[in-house]
UniProtKB/TrEMBL annotation:
Species for this entry: Maribacter luteus
Cell compartment(s), UniProt: Cell membrane
Principal location listed in the UniProt entry: membrane
Membrane topology, as annotated: Multi-pass membrane protein
Membrane-spanning parts: 32-52, 64-81, 108-131, 143-162, 174-194, 317-337, 357-374, 395-413, 419-438
Annotated keywords: Cell membrane, Membrane, Transmembrane, Transmembrane helix
GO cellular component: plasma membrane
Protein name per Swiss-Prot or TrEMBL: Oligosaccharide flippase family protein
Length: 466
């Protein structure tokens, strides 16, 4: 009996050791780390969104959404100039080169911050002097965004280093520090404090500052490397970044333009923004895996292209695009069926009277989600091929199409449904244009996405690190 018990114990130990080894392998997997980072942050963001819909009335919540959307848009403008270029340069650099790149990137963003402060506050003074009435969300942005831009400079600049090093666990900690602190405040506010919109904005500024200070103390953001900034590196960052910035800004406009234009409508206004934000938020949640895999695909594709391994770059493109599209299919079908329950869960009883409209809009967005991988990875491959201007052209065309459709939908038909339909239409335009531009640079066959995806699934175990 004793011998048998000892044998069983040894077997248990071996099984436990194997399980621990497999978990360690999964923990090292870059795609999984990136996904975990984005899912964690998105979950905290989802809870914050749900608390805000229940703490603010429709008008105030619409003002908050417009303020945050504008802030996110301008953040992309700022960091789009340096982030992708920094990721590209930071891959495989020495410590001295790293200090030069981070310091140069930080100095560029400081100059952009000064310009933003001047533009926002001068414009706010002009509107006040001329007594021009604009949506409250726009006023909040002009007054408070310059302070937010200073508060979030550090942690945003550090993201380039994390992505280049593929250190998604560190990225997760920094981003969770930001959204986690804000979530804790919202919970306290929901149950005990009962504070309003302005106090919520002030706390948001504070938690961004805390995250940035943490990155500065750990020497991740580049502030302490400002003396190492050099003109040649700044020029290289700006040269590449001017295209990727335009691409990121235009990409942001693809979604943000909906909110901006709805906010200008006297008929829809802040209440319209609040209603449209709910199905849009659900769509953003469905896109989380795509953002995660994009962050891991870009360095890999770039490395293959820089080394002239076009066959390998094509294979990565086919695999990522095909696999993620297959992953999205059951999620999109489930979301289409359960749309009403999902909208009510996110928005709460305040939006029960608009439930049929918001459900229909969200079902339109599930079609858009299915198209996203094709559109996104054509852009990633264009950037990896060092053709950021092509990617910029593609996104500009999509953005112009979206703005035109939005203007017609909002000011002619006064319809949120047509705004959502426009999202599907401009994505289709982007897919066709993306493939057209890629085929000018590299041989691409759509059918190979299916082949490579199934080959990847068959050999899945070989893709885990040893």
């Amino acid at each position: 009996m004793g011998k048998a018990a000892g044998t069983i114990q040894v077997l248990h130990q071996k099984i436990g050791s194997v399980m621990v080894g497999k978990l360690k392998k999964l923990g090292k997997e870059k795609n999984l780390s990136s996904l975990l980072s984005n899912v964690s942050v998105a979950f905290a963001g989802l809870l914050s969104f749900m608390l805000l819909t229940r703490q603010l009335d429709k008008e105030a919540f619409g003002d908050w959404v417009l303020f945050i959307t504008l802030s996110t848009f301008v953040d992309l403008l700022r960091f789009g100039l340096t982030r992708n270029a920094s990721v590209r340069l930071l891959s495989g650099t020495t410590f001295t080169e790293k200090k030069q790149i981070l310091g140069s990137s930080y100095r560029i963003n400081l100059w952009l911050l000064i310009i933003i402060i001047l533009v926002c506050w001068v414009l706010a003074l002009v509107l006040n002097f001329l007594v021009i009435d604009v949506n409250n969300g726009y006023e909040l942005f002009l007054i408070w965004y310059p302070i937010l831009a200073l508060a979030n400079l550090g942690w945003n600049n550090a993201l380039a280093l994390f992505q280049a090093e593929q250190n998604f666990n560190r990225m997760m900690v920094v981003r969770l520090l930001n959204v986690g602190l804000f979530l804790v405040f919202l919970l306290l506010n929901h149950f005990w404090l009962g504070l309003g919109l302005m106090e919520i904005i002030w706390v948001n500024l504070f938690v961004n500052l805390v995250s940035s200070l943490w990155c500065t103390l750990r020497k991740w953001d580049g502030l302490l490397y400002l003396p190492n900034a050099v003109k040649p590196v700044e020029k290289e960052l700006i040269h590449f970044g001017k295209y990727s910035m335009g691409t990121l800004v235009s990409s942001s406009l693809l979604k943000s333009a909906d909110t901006f234009i709805i906010g200008l409508s006297p008929f829809l206004g802040s209440a319209g923004i609040a209603m449209y934000a709910i199905p849009l938020k659900l769509t953003d949640l469905l896109g989380i895996p795509l953002n995660s895999f994009t962050m891991t695909a870009y360095p890999r594709m770039s490395k293959s292209c820089l080394e002239g391994k076009m066959h390998e770059a094509r294979k990565i493109f086919y695999t990522y695009t095909g696999i993620i599209t297959l992953l999205f299919l059951p999620v999109a079908i489930f979301s289409f069926i359960m749309a009403e329950e999902m909208v009510l869960f996110l928005g709460g009883d305040n939006y029960a009277d608009s439930l049929p409209l918001l459900t229909f809009i969200f079902r339109i967005f599930t079609v858009y989600v299915m198209l996203l991988p094709l559109d996104r990875f054509t852009g990633v491959l264009l950037d990896s091929l060092n053709r950021p201007k092509y990617n910029l052209y593609k996104v500009i065309v999509m953005t112009l199409a979206n703005i035109l459709i939005d203007i017609i939908a909002v000011f002619v038909f006064e319809s949120l449904v047509l705004v959502a339909v426009g999202t599907v239409l401009f994505t289709l335009i982007g897919i066709f244009m993306g493939f057209y531009l890629l085929r000018k640079e590299i041989e691409i066959h759509s059918k190979d996405m299916i082949t490579e995806s199934f080959l990847f699934i068959k050999k899945l175990k070989t893709h885990l690190p040893v």
